[in-house]
Amino acid sequence: MLLFLSVPQPRPPGARTRARASRSRMALCGQAAGAASLPSELIVHIFSFLSAPDRLRASASCSHWRECLFYPALWPQLRISLRVSPAEQPRLEFLMRKCGWFVRELRVEFAAENYLSGGGGPGDGADTGGGGEEVEALQLSTRWLEVLHTYLELVLCVLVSIRNNRNLQKFSLFGDISVLQQQGSLSNTYLSKVDPDGKKIKQIQQLFEEILSNSRQLRWLSCGFMLEIVTPTSLSSLSNSIANTMEHLSLLDNNIPGNSTLITAVELERFVNLCSLALDFCDFTAEMARVLTDSNHVPLQRLSLLVHNVSVMHKSLDNMPNDEHWALSRKSTGLRVYIMAFDIKSEDMLKILKPSIPLERIHFDSYITCVSGAIVDLISRQYDKFLSHFILMNDVIDTSGFPDLSDNRNEDPLVLLAWRCTKLSLLAIHGYTVWAHNLIAIARLRGPDLKVLEVTEESIDFDQGELADQDVDPVHNLIEQVSLGLGQPWHAVMDIESLSVFTEPNRHFYREMQSFSEGI
């Protein structure tokens, strides 16, 4: 019998340590302790593949993952849409405390809640009826005071958190509280009650200027409809080096008193690399157009202009550019213009719509003054080479009295618009009569190139011949024919409240202006 004896051999140096480490790794795998034991770098890498909501859910797994959630590389940009509500404040404070000091792109939108279901803002003249009218007015006043107070606190929270952020490259603020500004009574009445000594407004303005002064990489500055944040002296806080490299600037505010403007032609001379600009139309003067044509300025690519009846009432159209000044478009062959007009009279629009404007988008929003067929016809003749977006909104109360643009005309101006403007890709209409046969003609003329055709159901009308035909359902025939013309399923907008361009015109314009400027 043969015996085989196993004689232990001496361990080489370090073998005991490697064996212990191997057993530790085996034990770790056996315990399945992956989530809590992963290194921070790997967790951050995992987070980088997840959307923001999924990151938040994943961070709930353990404290270690929560610590990695707000790693700066994960949040280069932050886009926040807030209701002006006290419930939003703690969440905003937490988020801005975590990200405000390093975020590179920050976009914040404030929107006032619609406390006034079925009514307008204070002073809108609505009759509540009976002896409860005074009580109702007092309740509305109290609610709007609360909204304003919360709005100021939320704005302060955002500005305080980024005051020392020198990495900020894009900064955009939007405040849709225009419902409070009806009849221009907000600043003098409600704001004075919330901030009687003006300390908070002054603090907000100083913080905004401090942010501009501390910026080292800012290329995009956009502020729209924000209540008294930007002043005529705010831009002077920007250093020359930052102003010289700024690529986008938008300053839209209808609450500036008197003839004051947020930027002058002299100030604009510093912004030599500006590619896109958005201003109140009354602030865009002939002198500004001249500055932008100077040889030391790069060619302007996008120009968005807001024409508001409040501005037209308090400011003059006498200084606006004429056709000679619009030679700006000859220097920059890629220049495109976007105009939004709030309740502007036809005679004023005739002054504004110069033939040499390279108009690509126009948005009419009316509460009192309706757009005439002559204006639509003028637009289709002058801007047939460029026009791609045409929006026509009329917020009238009496739905039985929609104006008919084709009255006393051989051809419907909207059909002519579709025929002449071969680049038309978006057409949205509410509050104007659109005849069914004309809608079919529009769809056939533009075909699949008309990507968006939004017409509200109450705006569509049928002539007597269509209604008299018992063999054809006029509504079904309209849907079928328009769908065939567009090459895609189509139906009328049944719920006007679902149409954001109607319910939130300011926000719609601001977002469209942003994408319009980014699309260079």
TrEMBL record:
Keywords: Ubl conjugation pathway. One of its GO terms (biological process) is positive regulation of protein ubiquitination. This is F-box protein 33. It comes from the Eukaryota. Signal peptide: none annotated. It comes from Loxodonta africana. The keyword Cell wall biogenesis/degradation does not apply. The gene is FBXO33. The keyword Cell membrane does not apply. Residues 32-78 form the F-box domain. Pfam families: F-box-like (PF12937). SUPFAM superfamilies: F-box domain (SSF81383).
